[in-house]
Amino acid sequence: MNEKQTKNAAESIVKALVELSLGKEPNIFSKSPFRKLAEHKNYTLIRDAYIDYLKEFDGKIDSDEDMKRLFDFRIKILNYFNDDK
Which residues contact 70 (CB under 8 A, 6 or more apart)? Predict the structure, then answer.
């Protein structure tokens, strides 16, 4: 998976997490992450990783350290999401 694919996949998971937290429910036409996330065995790990990321986020990404933190967060939630066995 290249960097753009990683970014897009992670953003899909975050979007699904936000939609679920706002009370939206997936249906048969929903994209895969939104359909799978509510019942995913690692839902709590994904949610907590997002919360931890937001706790350290100051509203902007303006340093190499910020970019690394974002990239590490994306990889972490993708690993949790893809570990669905």
Answer: 53, 61
- Predicted confidence (pLDDT) per residue in 42-52, tens digit: 999 999 999 99
State the angle between helix axes of 43-56 and 3-21 in degrees (0 to 180), rounded to the nearest 10.
Answer: 100
Counting the structural domains of the chain, the total is 1
Tokens found for residue 67: 């970019």
Residue 85 DSSP symbol: -
Please tell me the pTM assigned to this model: 0.87
Query: What is the model's pLDDT at position 65?
Result: 95
CA distance 67 to 73: 10
Half-sphere exposure at residue 81, Cβ-oriented, CA atoms within 13 angstroms: 26
> What is the extent of the structural domain holding 27?
3-82
Please compute the mean of the pLDDT values over residues 20-39 and round it to a whole number. Answer: 86
